Amino acid sequence: MLQNIPLKLLAVGLSILFWIFVASIENSILQVPEPVTINVFNQSEDLALVADPGMVRVTVRSDDQGAFRAVSANDFEAYIDVRNIGVGKHVIPVTVNAKDPAVRIARVEPERVEIELEPLREKIVPLQVSIEGQPSTGFRVASNRLSQEHVNIRGAQTILEDISGAQARVRLEGNEQNNVTKIPEIVILDDRGNVMQGFSVVEPIQVDIEIVELDYVKAVGVRTQFVGRLEDGTIRRIAPTPAAVTISGKRDVVDPINVVLLEEIDLRGRDESFEVEVPILVPEGVTLVDVETVRVEVEVDD
């Protein structure tokens, strides 16, 4: 039995070496966590893709384990070459290159993709502005104006038929205090408002955005005014409804105001209690936010 010990030790040693070899192979292979977008190269200028070629899953191999640290789809380029390919459906092989020379491509799934090319066409569709974000605190967007109300887009005839309009999307950074001009992202929409891909815009578009200071809003009281005298009796109570109103305007104009006056109420010829709707006298540079008149109840003692 002792004479078999060297053979047993040799077998154990070989097993360990084989395990290390297999483990090293397994550890040197990695699937990229995110799919890689397929680009299209050498497409004829008078043709258009009916749909994007999509994405591929990439598995890579490397002898340098450090090359796998924080690997992402941005570390690879996937493309199909459609040089000299005409109208119709075609199955094209996908080529993937790694930007890191220490990384080798082990597998690409799928290896080929089907595409369809059609003659390039143009279509003019209405354009609307969509503004995301807000200007600087204390300011607001007062208006916007497009350099043109329609946009000319290019794409495959089949999908051009489904397009109903486009959006010029611009983003405010939160620090704007003056008028700005933005170059928008043009988003193409179908009849149901879904975003469509695979189009280009013929001419450049601009959006002029008017930025103004935000109105300062404040609640203030109301004050009644009378003209003339009662025929008989005395005023016992005055009750305006509402007793306070909201005004807005520039802060330096609105802030000093604590009450607004009502138009004068004529007491001549009156000798008993009454109610009357009275307009508010609006100071210059001020806007009424909620109401323009106040109902005043005047209670008269005999």
Secondary-structure blueprint:
Layout: H1 5-27, E1 29-31, E2 36-41, E3 47-49, E4 55-61, E5 76-81, E6 88-93, E7 95-98, E8 104-109, E9 112-132, E10 139-146, E11 150-156, H2 157-160, E12 163-171, E13 180-182, E14 185-190, E15 195-196, E16 200-201, E17 207-213, E18 216-227, E19 234-241, E20 244-249, H3 251-254, E21 259-266, E22 274-279, E23 286-288, E24 293-301
Parallel strand pairs: 2-5, 9-12, 18-21
Antiparallel strand pairs: 1-4, 2-4, 3-9, 4-8, 5-7, 6-9, 9-11, 10-17, 11-16, 12-14, 13-17, 14-15, 18-20, 19-24, 20-23, 22-24
Oligomer: single chain
Outline the biggest β-sheet: 8 strands, mixed
How would you sum up the global shape?
Answer: elongated
Structural class: mainly beta
> What is the H/E order?
HEEEEEEEEEEEHEEEEEEEEEHEEEE
Number of strands: 24
Please tell me the total number of domains: 3
Low-confidence stretches: 18-23
If classified by CATH, what would the architecture of the largest domain be?
Answer: Beta Complex
Measured distance between first and last alpha carbons: 133 Å
CATH topology of the largest domain: RNA Polymerase Alpha Subunit, Chain A, domain 2
Q: Calculate Rg over CA atoms.
A: 38 Å
